[in-house]
Design goal:
By secondary structure, the chain is α/β, with parallel strands linked by helices. The chain is built from 16 helices and 11 strands. α1 crosses α11 and α10 runs parallel beside α13. The longest helix has 18 residues. The relative contact order is 0.12.
């Protein structure tokens, strides 16, 4: 039986890969959304014939409406349109692939409506994890992780829900600069930072992988998803990106999930759970790999990772501050205004100064995010 799918962020990296597994997953696309990529959204709408499409940037409404005038598709626009799609009565599963803190409100809307939420927007949990998990618990919604690492942990827990977790193993590729010293990273360019060795991702998350901030954010996400403190999450560098994370139980058995570094595997599993169906991802040959390697992360060189771990331990709005500061610093780096190492330095400074911001409601989260961004803009020194 087909499930009606709402796909938020359909034109991004996760969204486009999700559409490659929609049909193998047995889902029907009910709605699609994009921020401003009208051309690709129109192509997707014609290929999958959703009932609704939404463009987050209201300035694109007229163009999208005109482009789809010969169809029966309902066209919506503006940030509130995503909330409307996330809570559609006929929707059975919502895949949130929106980038950044902008994904928090759609996450809350889906969970308030009691939807099954396939979550690829880690910022929802990093910035407002306490709100998200309470809503999921109280409204009957279900969270299914889409990030490869969190999907691997989730898969390792299937059939083991009654067993106590001793430790979560969270693997990291190490990004393009594994083994480099701070001195060697001083002159890194955006082009170099965007050359990930294993994964094909959007620009922001690829830079986050290069600074290892992405792994820090994933640690915070794992805390909320699986109910464990940061002290019981162990980050391990695994260059091959074949072992995608796992769980160690009290008897010291380690259950892990392995596969090729192909995001279509965890995306499809979130759409088909608890079933597994044939899909387009390739076969993993262990003999062909020869060996897998593991090592410890370098917290001193990769200051973003160290700062994210500090924010995780501080709790409160500190993770939100770290996330907002990082988003702003990465933007400045991609625009060539600051150096690669300045990203970590600026984020560390923001957490140091703003970690104790009061409050815990949704508006407090957005206020902390804004304060973090303003802190970065007030303290950065443009690269000469």
């Amino acid at each position: 039986m087909q499930k009606n799918l709402v796909l938020l962020g359909s034109t991004g990296s996760i969204g486009t890969q999700a559409l490659q597994v929609v049909r193998p997953s047995g889902c029907r696309v009910l709605a699609l959304s994009a921020h401003r990529n009208i051309q690709l959204l129109e192509q997707q709408a014609r290929a999958f014939s959703p009932r609704y499409v939404a463009i987050g940037d209201s300035a694109g409404y007229a163009a999208l409406k005109t482009a789809l005038a010969d169809t029966d598709i309902h066209v919506l626009a503006g940030p509130d349109a995503l909330l409307e799609l996330a809570a559609l009565p006929e929707a059975e599963i919502v895949l949130n692939a929106v980038v950044g803190i902008a994904g928090l409100r759609p996450t809350l809307a889906a969970l308030k409506a009691g939807k099954t939420l396939a979550l690829a927007n880690k910022e929802s949990l990093v910035t407002g994890g306490h709100i998200v998990m309470e809503l999921a618990h109280n409204n009957g919604g279900r969270l299914l992780p889409v990030d490869s690492e969190h999907s691997a942990i989730f898969q390792a827990l299937q059939g083991n829900e009654g067993n106590k977790i001793r430790e979560i193993l969270l693997t990291a590729s190490g990004g393009p600069f594994f083994g480099k010293s701070r001195e060697e990273l001083a002159d890194v360019t955006p082009q170099q930072a965007l050359q990930h060795p294993n994964w094909s991702m959007g620009a922001k998350i690829t830079v986050d992988s290069a600074t290892m901030m992405n792994k820090g954010l994933e640690l915070i996400e794992a805390m909320w998803l699986f109910g464990v403190p940061p002290e019981r999450i162990r980050i391990v560098i695994h260059r091959e990106s074949i072992l995608h994370s796992g769980v160690e139980f009290e008897d010291h058995s380690l259950m892990v999930q392995m596969g090729l570094p192909d995001m279509r595997i965890p995306i499809q599993y979130a759409l088909t759970w608890p079933r597994r169906l044939p899909g387009p991802a390739g076969h993993l040959s262990l003999a062909g790999l020869g060996r897998l390697t593991f090592s410890q992360p370098d917290f001193e060189t990769f200051l973003c990772l160290k700062t994210a771990l500090k924010a995780a331990k501080l709790g409160g709005l500190a993770p939100c501050v770290a996330n907002g500061a990082n988003e702003e610093a990465v933007r400045l780096f991609l625009e060539g205004k600051i150096s690669f190492l300045q990203i970590g330095e600026l984020v560390a400074g923001a957490v140091e100064e703003l970690a104790a911001l009061p409050g815990g409601g949704v508006e407090d989260v957005f206020a902390a995010d804004q304060a973090a961004r303003e802190h970065i803009l007030a303290h950065f020194q443009q690269k000469i």
